Amino acid sequence: MSPDIVGLALLLLGVLLLVSKLVRVKWKLMQRLYLPGSIIGGAIALLFGPDLFGRVMNALENVEGDFYGFGGVLRAIGTDRFAEGGLFGTGVMQVWSALPGLLISVVFAGLFLGKPLPRFRQAVSLAGPNLAFGITVASGQYVVGLLLALFVLVPLFNVPAMSGALIEIGFLGGHGTAAGLGPTFDQVGWAAGKDLSVGMATVGLLSGIIVGIILINWGARRGKTSAISADSRGTAREQAGLIEKENRGPGAVMTVHPSSMDPLTLHFGLIAVAVLIGQVILMGLQALERALWADTIEIMAFVPLFPLAMIGGIVLQMVIDRFDKNHVVDERTVERVQGLSLDLLIISAMATLSLQAIAENLVPFLLLAVSGIAWCLFAFLVLAPRIMPSHWFERAIAEFGQSLGVTATGMVLMRVVDPEMKTPAYSAFGYKQLIFEPFFGGGLITAAAIPLIASPQIGAWGFLGMMAATMAVALFIGLMGRRRAMAAGGAAQREAAGTGAS
Hints:
This protein is an all-alpha fold. The N and C termini lie far apart (84 Å). Helix 7 (90-109) crosses helix 10 (174-180), helix 12 (192-221) crosses helix 19 and helix 14 packs across helix 15.
């Protein structure tokens, strides 16, 4: 593939991002849904891809009659290239299909860079309820999906049992994880799994935002929110995704002088080091597996790079905390690199989504999607009030958004329900991520799920048992923690009342 094609593919992604931003600014529906521009751009790219635009052009070329000369023009041009690559061409589509697997490692490598790592006890104390709830929902997505797969999808639709993992991979993992696991699906012999999981990620993201906004309006009307009322609403500019001039602040901090090195260059280098550390860890684990137990069961051979890149970021941040006396690592700059990578990743993943694979498995896909959404709604409405000790709505809405549409969706919903950060939801959610992310939502468990289900030693029933046990333990800890917190609060109130009376 020529460098010109690679450059053109990247330039087209930039154009799509600008077009998507214009759509967000001008289209009121997109504003009310708080739909990210990358999703809008991905939908536009999918519309003009081979599965839609290509099929339409091919149908028009073959239509009987000249169709006012249009059919003849198309026959003269030749629409084979439209059928293979849509409006953008096969070369561009090939570049886009490779990008998600590369960019997801950049996103995960920067998750903890620039963030001081708190003490373990401090993080657990504040984020314990969020962590218990998050693990309950995440492991429950596997339980719901695998039960549906084993009792309905496998016997009735002849899809593999590993389809039960698509809910967690697509919903919690998101587009990056779904696309990044493409090689894993290929290795276990179910290539359609990538397209179905990317489609599941799209459904989850849209559902998370739409249903989340509905829940916020319901909670505000019912008095379940503590930071906003039923009349609270973002300004027109906020809904359009713009920031008022008087409220604009720096998106990054200049921590090194540009005469020596541009700050963005420095932070890109740090992310590169984190990814390379992850690559070394992965290679070491694969070599250890080959030497010790590969003849019995293989897991690390199927694990992608990105969860280990996140571990590499944690290792690098520990070194930075120890030796960086000048504080040259800026969290906001890292987030800008992550944001660019994630936007490009989502557009390229959606643009190369195979609608044919979804159409061929439409009923199983819909059953999994509806079951996953129903489970997340049940967890939010029934379990969250019984697990969260205070400000349950603000804390749980972030978890609900993440459970359907990755961390960014949770942050968007939390921003809507608590715009001035009056509740402990932000800190609890952030600290919870330090323990949660290495395992679920694209972490080690997500990466190992497909290989474990596919292995004869563990299989779907074994993995279902593991996740059911994990869900039961997390739910028990969450419920008991809430009860202890309420008991401690009641004792403190009685003590205060007794002191006041004396």
